[in-house]
Structure prediction request, 861 residues.
Amino acid sequence: MPRTALRRRRLGVAVLTALAIGAAGAAPAAQAQDEEPTDLITNGDFASGTTGWWTTANLTGAVADGEWCVDVPGGTANAWDAIVGQDGLPLVTGESYELRFTARATADVSVRALVQRPVDPWPTAVEEFPVLSSEAQDFSYAFTANADWTDAQLAFQIGRHAEPWQFCISEVQLLTGAEPPVYEPDTGPRVRVNQVGYLPDGPKRATLVTDAADPVPWQLHDAAGTLVAEGDSQPHGEESTSGESVHVIDFSDASATGEGFTLTADGETSYPFAIGGNPYGDLAVDAMSFYYPMRSGIAIDDAIAPGYGREAGHVDTAPNQGDGAVTCPANACDYALDVTGGWYDAGDHGKYVVNGGISVAQLMSVYERALNAPTGDTGRLGDGSLRIPEHGDGVPDVLDEARWEVEFLLAMQVPASEELAGMAHHKIHDEKWTGLPLMPADDPQPRYLQPPSTAATLNLAAAAAQAARLFEPYDADFAAECLEAAETAWQAALAHPDLYAPDTSPDGGGPYGDSDVSDEFYWAAAELFLTTGTKSYEDYLLASKVHEADSFGPGAFYWGGVAGLAKLDLALVPNALPGRDEIVTQVVAGADGYLDLQAASPWGLSYGSSGTFDWGSNSAVLNELVVVATAFDLTGEAKYRDGVLTGLDYILGRNALGNSYVTGYGSHDSHNMHSRWFANQLDPNLPNPPAGTLAGGPNSVTGTWDPVAQRWLTGCAPQRCYIDDIGSWSTNELTINWNAPLAQIATFAAEQAGTAAATPSCEVQYLINGQWPGGFNAQIVVTNTGDEPLQDLSLKWALPTGQSIVNSWSVALTRDGHTVTATDIAGGQELKPGRTFTFGFIGAKDARTAVAPASVTCSAA
Ligand code: 9MR
Prediction:
């Protein structure tokens, strides 16, 4: 076919291509005007057959009419198991290039197109995943080289598909002198709002991006277009994290409720949002239901998680090599462990104890907070509350989900007969990194246990100790098993306090390196103390340098720094640690620090004022909010609740990119997170991540960037160093540890919707009147502080660990799980305004001092 005809026929498709590139977040390249581009490809029009080109041995093909078609066998595992390529391409650092080609396929498949150095570790200059179909499409990708290479390779990696198909390519060019790619994200309206919604009695703020120096008027309209509130913005000026000039719009006083509100200012109208209802209820459920499709070792049931059904991953079924009997590389250990189960860490198939420990701890804290916080509500976390298989077992679903991971953590412990008995292996992962997409069940790699580490051992100790106290009323045997594993791990860590995991990793997994484990020791001691009350843990805490240190800096805590997490639990979970008030003071002071930073930020952001947004910055934002939420639970002061809600606005769209970082929430959401199996961007047959998945978020640390970030984000303001592209693992991965604080904050926010109206005017004094070895006497005095009589009054609290009820007087006490409910108060008669009623019980306890519950809630008819 003559070349001109070929071009004309494909013109329409070229437009489509440009749109596709725009959707990926960037403008297509244009040719620089002052120099003649050179095409680096030899025989890109296939006029000389396949001269200059090579293929892997499993491909055969033929050239006809300037198009080369090759037959690709089915049944290979990786994209690079079948390659069409050309070598010896020279790239010059700082120069920009445009890769162009035309391609079609006999099936709708995605392939991997890249320019790389064909030498381990295979650095790439550009990596793209065009989706081919039966009609030829033109593709164009611009990139800037960041190294001088004389031997770059253009590769079309076309393996990985189950069925045989045919790949046809024509008009391949690699042109010099291209315009550098420019990142032009779709930031939507300049009025940036929480795209999900606000609470009627909560703070309601938006950020307007504008160069206007003076206040500008704003209007709030309801879904019908009726004006419901108006005012003027507050100019803030240049803001460094976004690189933009902004104003704040405060519409907190708006009292209308409903769906579909919009905010208009400076000629721009925001995405729609709700006011009222319970905008965060589904978010909380989704953020926790995220974990089920992340499970390893179990088939995911499509009826439970619609759209996410898949085969079990890493069971002992080929091509998986299975996690049923995993040993150490180079026979470094003489045993094999069954480490089936647990959650995959992130977009990869690795399972890492340090990160598993913090993730499951924060998920369990969703439940533990609900037990102890005055506005906590275990009712929304009951059996049947999440999309998981364990319904009907009488156990709160979030604990069922947590157990899936805790059991994996226990399995990672070194067996009793070995030298490092009780230590935990740091991680288990593939021998080599695999490509994307790759379903867990299709991973053919051998997997190994990496050496035990003190950090992993202590994370296991902390998480298992917390599990022990939370599972105690539901499964005493499992609770005992957890506690034994935790205490064994603690002793092992004391015996091997400096087995540090390195900052570098063998191929196929992330490092999770950590050479300061003083915080891990503190966390494990705190959880063991909360669960057992044992004096040796108390002594350890009080002697630790961590105890009095400020633990609430930027990001509050993360997998490598867990002191803050320990302090939140010491502050909120009932215990008799001497000087415990000091810890409460530290938590509240930490929260005050975050509120101060938040007040200074026109985005309501406490994180990032230093100018750095770290890998996983969204989790740092949310973990700071967990501290603020705990301060609310401890003090009841509304400013902390408002701070949490304001912080959540950033995650849900009030940010420099106008992007909601949670899949399925908001008009413009992240949905192409880095994942091997939620890989819809690469393969239309695969799903996007499930609703309620959090993206890692802006990462301004350029030295940690992946090739996609390097290609598109150069020069970004910190808050804008993010791209919703599946290749950008350093800005856009999904992980078990990042979704956990989302679950915590979404649950907290959901509980704040409408709590004020439900609380009757009553005051409770809960006194431990006396205690003796093995028992105590509790007296509860309830007062009606309101003007109306209280009818059918009942009280609820979570019984502190180590206590049980023996007998009671002047009341009926029932116990369900941790929760005690007191009914038949005042003999079933109404409690008149100003009157008090006293009842009590004899309790049994373990060796520790009996303490009162963290909070008691009243309800009345
Ligand atoms: O979350 C981790 C981040 O703090 C580190 O800076 C980064 C580089 O070591 O690794 C992140 O963890 C990744 C892990 O190593 C492998 N699985 C995916 C994790 C999220 O990106």
Q: What stands out?
A: The chain has four domains: 1-181, 183-277+579-756, 296-512, 759-859. Residues 1-33 have pLDDT under 50 and may be disordered. The first strand starts at residue 54 and ends at 55.
